[in-house]
Structure formats: structure tokens, C-alpha cells
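User: Predict the structure for this protein chain, please.
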Amino acid sequence: MIALCAELKIPINRVCLDIPEETNYLVHEEHLRREFDALVPLLDRYGVTKVDGLSHFPISHVSSLKSRKEVEMSEQFARKEKVHIAVIGAGRVANQIHYPALASFDDVEIVGICDLDEQRLHTTANSYHIQNRYTNYQSMIESCAPDGVYAIGQPHIMFDIWLWCLQQGQNLYIEKPMGITWHQAQLLSYLAEHKGVITQVSHQRRSSPLLVKLREECLKHGAITHAVCEFYKYAQEPFFNARDHMLDDCTHAIDTIRYMCGGEVIDIESHCKRIGVPDINWIGAQLHFDNGSTGFVINSWSSGKRVFRVQMHAPGIFVDADLEGKAQLYRYGDIEGIVYSAQEEAGGDQLFISGGFRAKSREFIDSLKYRKEVTTSPFRDCLKTMEVAEKILARALQSGE
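Assistant: Here is the predicted structure, written as C-alpha cells:
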């Protein structure tokens, strides 16, 4: 038919391929791509420039796209060689983690950088060869029109910035916690869903190549029966900050437990302590999930050193892991076990690689590039972590802990 139209000099602007509504697009993605790739020479030969329903990239099911405009937008993203990112913040965490991660991607261009501290602004911009530099984030976003925004900084400072970005319909990547109150977390999640944007909270341990690998091994034996997450630090002094220890650190442990156990939290048993300080610096919780799994969270800031350790148990298998170092996997009573390394699984020794930060960013970038959400910590999911944290603190308040 394409050849006949060409012979009759009938221009072909578009070829529409039917994808039935019941089709699982993701399952058939590779098959569809191969079919399209086979058509490319023919389409190019006869000057066909658009294909509806199937394209050079895995967009989400065309029936879920609400309008022709969204289809056109997806096609534009597919043709882009680089995803354009604007970054708000040039502080320690941004420079240690997020700029190196973004700079490691060949398909990402940092089109703008913003910070109130001009020395930090220019130092970071020079390090990563970023031309467009701003001290006003609104001017940066309006001028650069990025595909997505990284807004990295203290949550009590960044909340209004996050809110404004969402109100403008910007895809947004932020550091944890997602606000410092339950009210803030709810508003951020609501606005993100209302605007239909792609979001990510940097709970990076969900994306740790080591943890992902070990969880997959456990699930081969069946569902996770129980998991443990321990997070210890030595900080024997009052935590003079707008957020408390729960939001600063314990949300990481809660989120990691939620990832390991799967399912939804249906019951919480918890206890909090104040060891030598006026604020809570010890948190213990037992989380019960609707899939039958149980998670144990133990966090202390009165310990002897920093440790982030997890365990996962499934029938006939047990994992004991320091997610920033080594892990051991044991099966069927084996006392030797198999040793894994966070650095080897991630393919690099740098923290932004081995710690899961790069993988976390990759999820966000791929979501922008292909218009298919693959982020593992969108705001609506992080809201569940924040809810567990708030309930533990509410129990402590009610019991006088």
C-alpha cells in the first residue's frame, strides 16, 4: 500500500498502527520495536515522517495518552538526542552526588544552574561546563525551558521552590525528605498528580544495584517473610535543625523496608527514645504488610559509628548486607555463603555509582526521555513512607515518649 501510494504520487504523512486496548504494551515492547525497525527503511524511502501508536521508542500505551498533543510531545522526546535538565542548588550533596550522576550520562545536558551563593554557583558551573548561570530559579526555568528540574537543598528552604516548579508543570527530582510536615508532603503529592508530571524523591537505596540484585535472589525462593533495616550514627547532641531525626534519616530506613517487604503497611508497632538529648534519637518499629511480610526498623543516633545494614529472609534463603560495602547470601543452611560487593554490582567505586544515586537519576532521565514513568520513588509512593514516619511520631507523642 505504501508503494502504491508513492507510485500514484499520493503523499503519506502518517502511518497508524492499531494497538488493541487489551494489549500489554510493555510485554510486547521489544517485539513492536523490532517490527518498526524493519519498517524504517521503507518508511524513509517513501518519506513517511510520523507513525502513530508505535515509534522509535517505548512510549506508554497510546490508548492512555489523552490527546493528539500528548502523542506529538512523546514523538518530540523520542527525537531528542539529549534530555535538558536545569539544577537548582550547588551545595555539598548536589556536588557530591547529583551533578556527577547527571554528567555521567551521554544523553543529558545541564542547560542551567541556579544558586544564591555566586561563588558556589560559578565553581560548580565551571566544573561541569554549564553556560547558563542564574541566581533566580524562576528566570532560569522560564529561559531554559528544561525537560526536568533537579531542586536539591534543605527541605524547609526548598518547599516553596518545589511547589512553584510543580505549579508550572515541571518534572521534578528532589532530595528526601518530601517536606518537613505531613501537610507539605500531601500537597506535593497532590499537585504532582494533578499536573501529571514525573517526579522522583532520592530514596536511592531502592535503586541500589546491590539491594536490587539480592532482593531478586530472595524472591526466587518465594515472598519475603521478614526484613530488617538498621541505621546507626554517632550524634550524641540535640539535632538543631528544622527537621527531626525521623525525617532526616529514619525515612530512609522506612522506605528501604517498604521496598524489601513489598505490599502496603497495614499495622505499626513502635517505640521511641531520647537518649541523653531532648529530642527523639532512637526509633524502633515493627511494620506489618498486607502481603504477610514483616519489617523491622531500628535507628539510633547514639551509637558508636555509622552503619546502614539490611537483612532479607525468604524460604530457604537469607541476606545480610551493608549496602555501602559487602553482602552475604546464604541458602539452605550453607554457612559459607556468597559474597557480593556494592561496588562490583554497581560497576564503580564512586559513591554516586555504588550507592544507587546514579541508578536513581537514570530512572528519572529515562522517564523524561521516553514519556513512560519508571521512577521507583514518585511523590505518590514517597507519601506512603512519610505517612508511616508521621504515625510513628504520633504514637510517640500520644504515649509521652
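Confidence is low (pLDDT under 50) at residues 19-31, 49-74.
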